[in-house]
Amino acid sequence: MRFDWQTAAVILIVLGALLYLARIARGKLRALRGPGGDLTPGCSACGDDRPASRAPAPKVLVQLTRQQKPANKR
After folding, report:
1. Which of 26, 43, 24, 27 is nearest to 35 (CA)?
2. pLDDT tens-place string over residues 1-16
């Protein structure tokens, strides 16, 4: 395998892509960590202080129809 400027460019691009993906993965893992530093799914700060049951928001139904044109009366 010849080592020329194109090979060096490809190696730099691949290393840059790997660093970029590692940075994204590190951010995702930090988002999963709870306040104590352990991996927990979701937010460990919320839970007990929320109300036990909330009434669901009322659903509003809207029906759109065409209006009939009034007949021309002469």
Report:
1. 43
2. 788 999 999 999 999 9
- Chain Cα centroid distance, residue 71: 53
Q: What are the tens digits of pLDDT across the range 44-54?
A: 555 555 555 67
Task: Tell me if residue 53 falls in helix, strand or coil.
Answer: coil
Phi-psi sector, 60: left (phi>0), alpha (psi -120 to 50), beta:
beta
Is the torsion defined by CA of 15, 18, 24, 26 positive or negative? negative
Three-class DSSP category at 19 = helix
Region for 9 from its dihedrals, namely left if φ exceeds 0, alpha if ψ lies in -120 to 50, beta otherwise: alpha
Which tokens sit at 61? 């139904």
> Which pTM was predicted?
0.44
